[in-house]
Design brief:
The chain is mostly helical. It has one domain: Amino acid/polyamine transporter I, CATH 1.20.1740.10. It is built from 16 helices and no strands. α4 packs parallel to α14, α7 packs antiparallel against α12 and α14 crosses α16. The radius of gyration is 21 Å and the shape is globular.
Length: about 450
């Protein structure tokens, strides 16, 4: 495949024509930005806002802000590293620039494991909503969704992103509805009650961080963007800013409308807000919106997970056959593998527990990405002047500290799972620190 830019970290990135046997460059800034918002505004806020409220109380909005700040600072690292190496499997590519392929593989492996776990558990979330509406079994619902969306992902990036944008409009409309019906209660609510203090707020942020997962996946679209050097940093910023604003308003409205104790006790917290403020019909309607939101998250995670496998295969650290491209310009083998593994995992997990495990793996991978930018900047391997180099060292260090703080609050099970995955990645990864093939 033709490389999208020079392999040198500070070399100029340039758009390339859609030629050769590789992925097709057809995505514009608006498509990638809206896709980023779409995958961020998925199952997390619909499913985990109740658990967050139980830990943070009415200060739930602060937990969203803390998680958002961690995501935003990490997004700076992704934006800077993405202009140096705009390729699929970004965690592997970025970390390999600073530490070599062995450490890079661990970062990519952790994120891939998190993607697969996230796909499976969000599919189970979809299955739970569908059981509530139709009475069908949760696991069967989840597996059927994965098979259907896996086939769609094989159709092509343009078709998949097109459907994702339609579903995104539905899920954003649902969140805007919650904001609107809860806003009248703002004036009589308190928003700083923390029943478990700062420790509870931090634990809530660690759980809620799951709701921000998705901005990092934009790097997996780099090889299908027309101008990744220009548009990837912009898409990251726009996606996070839009999602964070919506999350903060949802947290304020939900806690004001029903109170954090009731919110934390509900298995369908946003549907509860709809029922209390409007009535049973609104609750059913928001349940349908939740189906769209969880399906959309599964679709985009399948998409990005397959690109992660493809990127690592093309770089020579996974079997080369996983990098096979089909006639429609999609990584066929990688997509089938990711869908199959997620379907198997859906038979085993549950959303609440897996959210903490997913967050732990992601936060450890993010820590390696942030550390990579600081290392490259300290060695003067990033572009820009002195001020830019200072920012490239300081901001990732701050992001690293926040990632570590939230990682500690995922619990011992999360820490053990992330550590075990990292050790497994070390065993399965390349035996030397040769640079990636491309």
């Amino acid at each position: 495949m033709t490389a999208s830019r020079s392999d040198h970290p500070s070399g100029p990135a340039a758009a390339q024509p859609d030629t050769g046997p590789g992925l097709r460059r057809q995505l514009e800034l608006w498509q990638v930005s809206l896709s980023g918002i779409a995958v961020i505004l998925g199952a997390g806020v619909y499913s985990l806002i109740g658990a967050g409220a139980g830990l943070a109380g009415s200060a739930l909005w602060l937990a969203f802000l803390l998680a958002g700040a961690t995501a935003a600072l990490t997004a700076y690292s992704y934006a800077r590293l993405g202009t140096m190496r705009p390729r699929d499997s970004p965690e592997f590519q970025y970390t390999a620039l600073a530490f070599g392929s062995r450490v890079g593989f661990i970062a990519g492996w952790l994120m891939l494991a998190a993607d697969l776990l996230g796909v499976a558990t969000v599919a189970l979330g979809f299955g739970g909503y569908l059981r509530h509406l139709a009475g069908t079994p949760v696991t069967a619902n989840a597996v059927a969704l994965l098979v259907a969306l896996g086939l769609l992902a094989l159709a092509g990036i343009g078709e998949t992103v097109g459907l994702a944008l339609v579903l995104a409009l539905v899920e954003v409309a649902g969140l805007c509805f919650v904001i609107a019906v809860g806003a009248p209660a703002w004036s009589r609510a308190t928003f700083l009650e923390m029943p478990h203090g700062f420790a509870g707020l931090s634990a809530a942020a660690a759980i809620i961080f799951f709701a921000y997962l998705g901005f990092d996946e934009l790097g997996n679209f780099a090889e299908e963007m027309r101008r990744p050097d220009r548009d990837l940093p912009r898409a990251l910023g726009l996606s996070l800013a839009g999602a964070t604003l919506i999350y903060l308003l949802v947290a304020l409205s939900a806690t004001a409308a029903v109170g954090w104790p009731a919110l934390s006790a509900s298995t369908a917290p946003l549907a509860l807000v709809a029922r209390v403020t409007v009535g049973p019909r609104a609750e059913a309607a928001l349940g349908l919106v939740a189906l769209a939101a969880t399906a959309n998250t599964v679709l985009l995670l399948l998409l990005s997970g397959s690109r992660s496998v493809y990127g690592m295969a093309a770089a020579g650290v996974l079997p080369g056959r996983l990098g096979a491209i089909g006639r429609r310009g999609t990584p066929v083998t990688a997509t089938v593998l990711v869908t199959a593994v997620a379907a198997i995992a859906a038979l085993l997990g549950d959303l609440a527990r897996a959210a903490a495990l997913t967050d732990a793996a992601v936060l450890m991978s993010f820590a390696l990405v942030n550390l990579s930018l600081s290392r490259l900047a300290a060695r003067r391997r990033t572009s820009g002047g002195r001020a830019r180099r200072i920012a490239d060292i300081a901001l990732p260090v701050l992001a690293l500290a926040l990632c570590a703080w939230l990682l500690l609050h995922t619990g011992w099970a999360g820490l053990a799972a992330a550590g075990g995955l990292a050790a497994l990645g070390l065993l399965l990864g390349p035996r030397d620190d040769r640079p990636p093939i491309r």
